[in-house]
Amino acid sequence: MALNYIWIALFVIGMLVGVIKLIFLGDMDSLPAMMDSTFEMSKTAFEMTLGLTGTLTLWMGILKIGEDSGLVDRLAKFLSPVLTKLFPEIPKNHPALGSIFMNISANMLGLDNAATPVGLKAMQELQSINDKKDTASNSMIMFLVLNTSGLTLIPVSIMAYRAKYGAADPADIFLPLLLTTMCSTLVGLLTVSIYQRINLFQKSFLIMFAVIAALIISLFATIYGMSTEQMQHFCRLLTSILILGAILIFILSGWRKKLNVYNSFIEGAKGGFNVAVSLIPYCVAILAAVGVFKASGALGMLKDYIRMGVEWVGLNSDFVDTIPVMLMKPLNGSGARGMMLECFESFGPDSFVGHLASILQGSTDTTFYILAIYFGSVGIKKYRYSVACGLMADAAGMIAAVLFGYFFFG
Q1: Could you tell me which of 366, 373, 367 has the C-alpha nearest to residue 275?
Q2: Confidence label for 383 from pLDDT (cuts 50, 70 and 90)
Q3: Following DSSP, what letter does each residue of 268-312 receive, concatenated?
C-alpha cells in the first residue's frame, strides 16, 4: 500500500509542478519534457529488463543444476543453524536457505547481475511455502530488507566509475562505504527483528556476526597498503574467481551425480526467461513515475528548499548537492548512478561532493525498485511493514554516509 501512495505521489507532484510552471512562469517546455520522459523511461525500463533476461536465464539454469544435483540442499543444511533462526518460517534444509545465502553473498561483493536472479529464485521458493499467496510472509520481508540494506564488501562498480572520471584514488571510498552499509544493514536487521520478535543475542547469531567481522578485517588487511591499481585488479580478480568458481562447482556437482547437466540447465533457463518477461510492467511503472518527478523540476526544487533549511539552522550545507543521489537511490539504481556521475562532472570525483555521492550510491540498494520487482515476480500485493523497514535502513545508510563523508573527506 505504501508503494502505491508513493507511486501516485511521484506522478501527482510532478504534474502539479509542471502545471504551476506553465501557468505562473510561462514555461512551455515543462509538460512536453514530462511527456517525453514517460516514454523515454518506459523504453529504458523495457531495455533494462530485456538486458536482464540473459543474466536471469544463465543463473536460473545454473541454479537448476544445483537443485537437481543436491548441492543447494547441502548448502541449506550447512547454513540452517543460523538461517532457520533468522527465518523461522522456512523448514529446516529447505532450498530457499541456499538461495538466500547466495543472494546476500553476491550483494556483499557488489555483483548486481548475479544477485538479482538468485534473489528472484529465493522469492519463488519462499512463495511456495507462503500460506497467503498475495501477502508478504515474515521470511520474505526479512530477506528483502537485508537485500535492500545493501551490505557491500567490495564496491567494484563505484570504484570503476571513479577511475573512469579520473579520481586520484578511486578506492578511497572503500572503508567509509563499508562502514556505511554495515550501519544500514544492522538497522534493517534490528528493525525487522523487533517486528518479528527475533532475539539477535542467540549464540548462533553472535558467531555469525563474529565470522562476518573476521572476513571484513581479513579483506581490509589484504588490500591495505595496495596501490589503487593493485586494489582494482585484486577486486576484479576476486569477483571473477567467485563467479566462475560458483559456476564450475555447480556444473561439477551435476556431473558427479551423473545428471544430464545440459538438460537441467535448459529447464532452469526457460524459467529465467519467463521471470524476466513478468518483470516488465513493474519496471515500467516505477521508472515512468520517477521520470515525471525528475523532468518536472520537482527534484531540483526540493534540493533548493532543503539547502535553504539547512543554512537557516546554521549547518554546513555542502552535502545538499548530493540530495538528488539520496532521493533517487531508493527509487532507481540507474537514476541514482546518473546523479552520482553528475556530481563527478560538476564538482569532480575527488571533491567532498564527489566522495559523498560515491558513498551514497553504495550506501543502500534500490528499495522501491527491489520491492516492486521481487514481490511482483511472485504476485505479492500486500507488503505489510516491508516498506517501513526498508526505508528505515535507507535512512540509516544515508545519515551514516553523510557523517562518514564529513569524517573522512570533509
Answers
A1: 373
A2: confident
A3: HHHHHHHHHHHHHHHHHHHHHHHHHHHHTTHHHHHHHHHHHHHHH
